[in-house]
Specification:
The complex is a heterodimer of chains A (about 170) and B (about 150). Chain A is α+β, with helices and mostly antiparallel strands and about 170 residues long. In chain A, about 45% of the residues lie in helices and about 30% in strands. Chain B is α+β, with helices and mostly antiparallel strands. In chain B, the strands form two sheets. In chain B, strands 4-3-6-5 form a four-stranded antiparallel β-sheet. In chain B, strands 1-2 form a two-stranded antiparallel ribbon. Classes of the chains: A alpha+beta (about 170), B alpha+beta (about 150).
């Protein structure tokens, strides 16, 4: 009777051990599954965010506030003088642009044939190279940002010259 | 008799659990979406082509000419001087400098082809090869500008 009880206990222990091992295998499986799943969701989120920034950049290069127009014809370039004036327009209608762009900043940098780190305004133009268009920095996120940029043709109407600039969109997290 | 049956059931259970775990891994990795390409690269290609074509190189004692005008005025065989330089060299040099400033996460393929008397002359500025390519072609009279972004 006693021997039979002991054999039963051993059987029960074996069963318990097998259940524990199976449980561990399931737990490891679920852990790695969620790691992979969360990782892929994060990656997709970042990709979509990057795409949104690049689509916004493409759109910003075509808004009438900054786009070149020669006569009545629109050209695919940015007018340096228009950008300076656009800054004022954007400041005056900030609510609209905040709704459109959120916590981001947009600027155009002159990169070729020369670079110039001086900010452009009515007083410094054309001896300058940074045209700030829009700025809405999230408090505390000054250093947490992601950038997207695109090469643009930058037109200086008073010189009749086209230079090369970079339209930069900075998104604050 | 009972113990043997129990062991077989447990063995079956282990196989089923292993199968579920493998299935979970497969699902986790198969859910990774393929890289989306298209609109942004084609936009980049258009903007870069415009930046190159419109650029007006610095020329001493000469009226500013855009790269587009230089392509039109350049005889690819004679390599005539524009802006105090052989025009093919000028086109190659300036286009390459601008292309080097473009987004470094892509590689670029850029050439200008001109046809004269049914003969093609090509300026090869940059080269890349990939199965995934986004292109922008511009036709300027007898010249064709071909920019490709290799993804």
């Amino acid at each position: 009777m006693l021997r039979s009880s002991k054999r039963g206990q051993i059987g029960l222990m074996e069963l318990l051990m097998v259940i524990v091992i199976i449980g561990i295998i399931i737990a490891i499986g679920i852990y790695f599954f969620y790691q992979g799943f969360i990782g892929s969701v994060k990656k997709t989120g970042e990709e979509l965010s990057m795409q949104e920034r690049e689509v916004l950049l493409g759109m910003l290069g075509r808004i009438p506030e900054v786009r070149c127009s020669i006569g009545s014809r629109d050209e695919n370039c940015l007018d340096a003088l228009k950008i300076i004036n656009a800054r004022e327009t954007i400041e005056d209608n900030k609510a609209y642009y905040i709704n459109l762009l959120g916590f981001r900043s947009v600027k155009v940098e002159l990169i070729y044939p020369e670079r110039n780190s001086k900010e452009c305004n009515a007083n410094t133009y054309p001896d300058c190279g940074i045209f700030k268009l829009y700025e809405n920095i999230k408090t505390g996120s000054e250093n947490m940002h992601q950038d997207a940029s695109i090469l643009v043709s930058l037109y200086y109407p008073e010189q009749g010259k086209y230079k090369v600039g970079k339209l930069v969109l900075r998104e604050y997290k | 008799m009972m113990k043997r049956a129990q062991t077989e059931v447990l063995g079956l259970l282990v196989i089923v659990v292993l199968f579920i775990v493998i299935l979970m891994f497969y699902l986790a990795f198969s859910m990774k979406s393929p890289q989306r390409t298209g609109i942004k690269e084609s936009e980049q290609a258009k903007y870069i082509s415009d930046a190159i074509l419109k650029y007006t190189p610095e020329c001493r004692n000469e009226v500013a000419k855009s790269i587009r005008d230089i392509i039109l005025g350049c005889d690819f065989e004679a390599n005539n001087e524009i802006c105090n330089k052989p025009c093919k060299d000028l086109l190659k040099e300036e286009s390459k400098k601008i292309l080097d400033l473009a987004d470094s996460k892509y590689r670029y393929d850029f050439k200008i082809r001109k046809t004269k008397n049914n003969q093609d002359s090509v300026i090869d500025i940059a080269r890349c090869s990939s199965n995934n390519v986004m292109a922008d072609n511009r036709i300027i009279k007898d010249a064709v500008l071909n920019l490709k972004i290799c993804i």
